[in-house]
Amino acid sequence: MSTLVKSGTVVTAHETKKADVRVEGERIAEVGENLQPRTGERVIDAAGMYVIPGGIDAHTHLDMPFGGTTSSDDFETGTRAAAFGGTTSIVDFAIQGRGTRMRDALDTWRKKAEGRAVTDYGLHMIVTDLGGAGLEDMDDMVREGVASFKLFMAYPNVLMVDDGTIFKALSQTAKNGALICMHAENGSVIDVIVARALAEGKTAPVYHALTRPVQAEAEAVHRAIAMAEMAGAPVYIVHLSSEDALNQVREARDRGVPAFAETCPQYLLLSVEDLERPGFEGAKYVFTPPLRPKEHQPKLWGGLKHDHLQVVSTDHCPFCFADQKILGKDDFTKIPNGGPGIENRMQLIYHHGVNSGKLTLNRFVEITSTAPARIFGMYPRKGEIAAGSDADLVIWDPEARHTISAKTHHMRVDYSMFEGFEVRGNARVVMSRGEVIVDAGQAAGKPGRGRYLKRTAHGGAWK
Ligand code: URP
Ligand code: ZN
Ligand code: ZN
Predict the structure, then answer these.
(1) Chain segment 132-169, per-residue pLDDT in tens
(2) Is 184 in the pocket of ligand 1 (CB under 6 A)?
(3) Which listed residue, 26, 63, 156, 255, has the most CB atoms within 10 A of its CB?
(4) Is 61 in the pocket of ligand 1 (CB under 6 A)?
């Protein structure tokens, strides 16, 4: 099947031009001016629209056991919701159980996705144990296309690993070309502060934020970068939330150190005040690192503009308010950590970034698609509009108005962190490998059509 996307404005990370895009099978065949439709070819009219590469969300947690429950979106509901918002690839996280092999976790997560995913999906591996054959397991994962690993400096006794383990993992990537993604918060210090708060009877959701100071994040970012420098490897800081942490990344990058970082819409648009909402409502905003005072938001936007931050992902980890967040009604430490956002990332960053003049259109494409494709070993197959790339295309209507709400969203979660937010700019048609998977607000992609993305090591962070 051949398709011609006609009369649109093609926007990539590096240029904006009037052009038509011809798709043959799963790939882009040509990009050029005044391409003529061929007999029998489907034509999609993109006049007045932007044609952008499908969004890539490099940080999601679908069907993930966490905090005594499981995230409420699975690979079907989560990737379908992603597609509605213009995201055509995700990278989710498999978790190595302590004392088990990484291959077991990879098999488990691939089974969760197979037969369900609507979009393409890759997997990072969360490393909890490098004893036994852990280092060989990392090489094995790289051969399987798991070209990145996440390590936790937070959540002692659950996911946290010690500095020696982090250094060993970083050193292994110096040999195999994978990328370490770091959850950077000083978990040991935070646990002491949390215990003190609980002893003082401070159990409301806001104490989740008040017990995780910015210094705990900045210190861990500093330590992570220092260890990466010693190991001779790049490092990628996930879900960076504060100016203090950003300063650490910027200082390292200014010295030429290959340190990279992502932030998420929630840190750009929400604040600690959301955790103070009346009743137990603040639990909807409990995730880690926590929301910060509003003053951090312009610093993060500035970081995106000036490439001190490279990526916007969502850290989509939804838990329903009614029967999951409620587990922490009397104790904030029991609130499952995580929030939903996979569907709204592109809309929010376009509206609050491009429409407000904080980001150029090209930078919007770069931070939501091209940069994650490069950094995570998918470029130029993903994140680009050029002959030979996968035909993951979004026909983006810059004038479409939409009010975000749990009443209308497609994520399987009973609230929205961005309830009532009005945005201008939305995905109209979404193509994944040449197939229309969302058309004017209607789902068209079958569960199970999404494919596992085997990613390559020595991605953009190594260049
Ligand atoms: O609170 C969060 N962020 N939940 C998901 C797990 C993680 O740390 O990314
Ligand atoms: Zn994390
Ligand atoms: Zn996460």
Answers:
(1) 999 999 999 999 999 999 999 999 999 999 999 999 99
(2) no
(3) 63
(4) yes
Longest dimension (CA), the chain: 75
| Residue 387 pLDDT exceeds 90 | yes
**Residue whose entry in the numeric block shows the structure tokens 């936007």:** 301
Average pLDDT over residues 273-277: 98
Measured CA to CA, the distance from residue 98 to residue 129 in angstroms comes to 5
- Alpha carbon of 287 to ligand 1 centroid (Å): 6
Query: Taking the C-alpha atoms of 92, 96, 97 and 101 in order, what is their torsion angle to the nearest 10 degrees?
Result: 140
Q: Which residues contact 217 (CB under 8 A, 6 or more apart)?
A: 184, 185, 186, 240, 241, 242, 244, 245, 289
Task: Quote the CA–CA distance of 339 and 274 in Å, as a whole number.
Answer: 13
Helix (H) or strand (E) holding 223: helix 214-231
Cβ of 317 closer than 6 Å to ligand 1, yes or no, is yes
Ligand 1 atom index nearest CA of 183: 8
Distance 426 CA to ligand 1 centre (A): 27
Looking at every residue in the chain, the average pLDDT score rounds to: 98
CA 315–ligand 2 middle distance (angstroms)? 8
- The yes-or-no verdict on residue 342 having pLDDT over 90 is yes
Whether the CB-CB separation of 126 and 152 falls below 8 Å is answered with: yes
Single out the residue of 359, 390, 303, 378 nearest to residue 370, CA to CA: 378
Say if CB 324 and CB 343 are below 8 A apart: no
Place of tokens 């596992």: 452
**What is the rounded CA–CA span in Å between residue 58 and residue 398?**
24
Q: Which helix (H) or strand (E) holds 383?
A: none
CA–centroid distance, residue 127 to ligand 2 (Å)? 12
Average pLDDT over residues 411-425: 98
Could you tell me if the CB of 363 is within 6 A of ligand 1?
Answer: no
Using CA atoms, how far apart are residues 106 and 89, in angstroms rounded to an integer? Answer: 18
CA distance 184 to 172: 19
Question: In whole angstroms, what is the distance from residue 160 CA to residue 368 CA?
Answer: 28
The per-residue pLDDT for range 88-103, each reduced to its tens digit, is: 999 999 999 999 999 9
Beta bridge partners of residue 403, listed in sequence order: 422
How far apart CA 228 and CA 256 sit, in angstroms, is 13
- Point out the ligand nearest to the CA of residue 314: 3
Which two structure tokens, joined as six digits, stand for 309? 């931050």
